[in-house]
């Protein structure tokens, strides 16, 4: 077959252009990326050989070999892993494979000068072009006869040739090093890079020595070593390798469980949230090993969904080695492991929250919204999860726990008050907060979409019911005010505005469920609330957005009897003005209340017309 020339996908070409021209101080990571790929390839072959032992027959000792040729100025990284056929080559080394790549490109275009970010995104195989003017990949896929050669200088094109049939199984990557990359021909330099980044690789990484192969890594599974033999750097490198991540872990948990079921886990909580945390395809990212053999990184049963940000590995000797990925579903051993891991992770989070509250808040900022999903998914862990949850508050800029909120509750207050909404900005200015603020009663401010759902399921904390302040039942009357002034204010009877209530009832008809006087407002004339037993206003909006609710909900209009507008309306009515002459006012006030809820007006044209009529009368 003749040579075929192919174009890189546009994004790859752009990426290569950036990588090749980057003045990047941490170039050496290209070796980590290539060794990591080689190790993955060995993992994949070992897994397949569990059911098809012939695949390993020709060469059963999985290994990664570095070779330098000082004359030709080449460095090769060879593995006898799974290898690639022609289709694999095109899909993997010509098209974007890694989600991080797109992310990198997006961020990069924002600030064209800063290339130092490359390292954060891990551009994988393509990072070889940081040090090479040409890269050649010779590869034969396990179980197949034909071999292939991929070559590129990273300038927009690559070629694929058929190779000879005596090429060994696996992949050999040959880097034709750039003039200024001679350091990567030095054995000592290579040995120290492998030691730094790839010591944890399970397969031997070797280099040809004077007489015999020289080993560059420990080649034992990191998690099988004792904690005291593992340095922090090694833990971190292992995290980056398994999580495909480039930050440092926020929390590292390494444990062996003995007893009925034995397993070792090395788990990490990242310090940064991945960009796809809330995308539906985001899966449990912990890798499953059985007796140190990699089985899968797609085992959804290993952890509950609300811990999907946890990374790392679990290795058990109580699962059969030849377990198929299908059999992993509904497996009693896995169920026990999952429950054990969940308890351990939540326990460690609790410890962090107690011992290092400030650092815990950074964790909460990154992953709190995910943890909250557990509040309605995991009945068993509900109390623990409630204890871990932190909230914004109407009376402080600090996040607070429920226990702390309860300890600050006012005399006579017997509920945990909250309000949900789209953004902190919006709910901080909500009219519903006015009365609570003036009485100094703290309200929890919640802005995650999951909040309405778990609140709907969890009735109370520590015997105190959760009450939305957008409901009528969240009554302020019971709560004592702090200052004498407030007390006087309370004693002063509010004007009797029964006539105004009638006016609203008449004017708004069945647009509303009821009209009543409220204590909760100080600055606003009116607001809308949900009746007890009705769907909360914010929840109704979410449900409508997801097409799970069609009809509009009738709300209760609450009226502030001390507001000048309401008092003026009362005076007009008392003075004999007819209800029909005041109709525009009720419509406009009702429209305002809708707007303040962040809802859109059902008839904006009509609202504007009435508002303009009032303004025109005022100017005249
Ligand atoms: P990543 O390894 O993060 O997926 P890379 O760009 O480094 O991203 O590699 C892209 C893909 O190319 C890999 O997912 C793998 O399928 C394939 N690949 C790379 N190196 C090898 C190798 N040595 N053996 C087999 N496949 C490989």
Overall 3D shape: elongated
How far do the termini sit from each other?
90 Å
- What's the arrangement of strands in the largest beta sheet? 1-6-5-4-7-3-2-8-9
* Number of H- or I-type helical stretches: 21
Task: Estimate the strand proportion.
Answer: 15-25%
The small-molecule ligands in this entry are: adenosine-5'-diphosphate
Q: Can you tell me the residue ranges where pLDDT is under 50 for at least 5 consecutive residues?
A: none
Question: How are the SSEs ordered, and which strands pair?
Answer:
Layout (H helix, E strand, L loop, with lengths): L3 E4 L2 H12 L7 H21 L14 E6 L4 E6 L6 H8 L5 H12 L7 H4 L10 E9 L6 E6 L4 E6 L7 E8 L9 H11 L7 E4 L4 E3 L16 H12 L5 E9 L5 E8 L14 E6 L2 E4 L14 E6 L15 H24 L1 H15 L1 H5 L4 H7 L3 E2 L8 H6 L8 E5 L3 H5 L5 H5 L5 E3 L4 H7 L2 E2 L2 E5 L15 H8 L6 H11 L3 E6 L8 E4 L7 H9 L9 E5 L4 H11 L8 H14 L7 H16 L1
Parallel strand pairs: 2-8, 12-14, 16-17, 16-19, 20-22
Antiparallel strand pairs: 1-6, 2-3, 3-7, 4-5, 4-7, 5-6, 8-9, 10-11, 11-14, 12-13, 15-17, 18-19, 21-22
Helix pairs in contact: 1-4, 2-6, 8-9, 8-11, 17-20, 20-21
Adenosine-5'-diphosphate (ADP) binds next to helix 2 and helix 3.
